[in-house]
Design a protein that fits this description.
The structure is a single chain. The chain has a six-stranded mixed β-sheet. Helices cover 21% and strands 42% of the residues. It is an alpha+beta fold.
């Protein structure tokens, strides 16, 4: 992430780089936020504390990711599987991320599946699925027995 415009989002760079690489020449723009339309819909089909089910617009998405990087630092994003459908207008990506929950130092690993709709070489809709139990386990303090 060479652009200083996105320096505050560096803790999520592995995710952003994985997504940008998966979309390749189907979209225009260097960074994850550059390849989304101003009115992008980012939908998550799981309950995650502090994260709404639907985020409308690029500015709102950037605000939410600012909160994400304040709480989680990613070390890697990999195991990418990319499925292109509808002549590249829909891309499904499967991947894993690994990082650290900053407040506790707990290691965090999760698997995702994202369905991405592209129009005019930009992301217009993102639908995300994840392993909710993995997130819960990373964020829930464990009692010492």
């Amino acid at each position: 992430m060479s652009d200083l415009k996105y320096a505050d989002y560096e803790p999520a760079a592995p995710y952003f780089n994985l997504v940008r690489g998966a979309l390749g020449d189907l979209v225009d723009g260097e960074h994850f936020f550059d390849v989304a339309t101003d009115d992008v819909v980012y939908e998550v089909l799981y309950d995650f504390p502090g994260w709404p089910r639907i985020i409308q617009g690029q500015a709102a998405l950037m605000t939410r990711f600012r909160g994400y990087v304040d709480n989680i630092a990613l070390q890697s994003a990999d195991k990418l599987i990319t499925h292109k459908t509808d002549d590249g207008r829909v891309v499904v990506i499967e991947y894993e991320i690994r990082g650290i929950i900053l407040a506790t130092g707990t290691k965090y690993t999760n698997r995702f599946c994202s369905i991405i709709k592209i129009e005019n070489r930009k992301i217009v809709h993102w639908r995300d699925y994840m392993d909710s139990l993995a997130a819960w386990n990373a964020l829930t303090p464990r009692s010492q027995s």
